[in-house]
Each structure stands twice: as structure tokens, then as C-alpha cells.
Amino acid sequence: MRYQGNTVLVEIKCPARCEKVPIIDKEGKTILEFFDCQAGTLTLKKSHSYYTQLQLQLYIMNLSQAVFYAWSPVQDDKFLFVDRDMNFLSEVVPKLEFFYFTYLLEELSKTT
Description:
Largest sheet: 3 strands, mixed
Strand order of the largest sheet: 3-6-7
């Protein structure tokens, strides 16, 4: 998607748990484990796999920003911007490269 002249990644989630329950309740809390909600402000938890997924997509596509969109039929949809996190990627990418080149590539070559 183009946003303010830049290409950004869009990740859409439609959590079934929010079919009849709002993403953010009246007390400013969320039932979604991938969000953190402080004073009504949502952030994507860095400890959740969606954060890793988003960061790796940004890395692979060489993009600097993503829009994370959560749909809800009972409340205004929620979206937030997530910037590429080079500190996070500098820890995760070498581990993935090690796994790929040490284990996965060898297994993949056996199947052809």
C-alpha cells in the first residue's frame, strides 16, 4: 500500500474473539494477547509471534513501516503503525540464517 509517498506493508487480522466483544473494552483493556493497551493506546507486543512475523516481512521486502490492522464488527477497527526494528532483526535474522543454512537447506536438498 502507498502511504504518504512510501510503500508500507499491510497486515490484517480478523480475530474471531472480537466478533461480539470489542477490541478495547470500556476500561481500556483488550482481550487480544498480541496487543498491549495502555490508556486506550494500542501497541503490538514484541514478545508475540505477530511482531516477529511483521518484522521479518519488513526485512524481506526491504520496507521500513507496516500497518497492523485488526477488524471488529462491534467496534471501530483498530490499526497501528509498526516501524522496522533493526535491534530486533539484528538478533533474530542471524539465528534464522544459522538454522536455515545448518539444518533446513540440507533437508530440503534431500527431497529433490
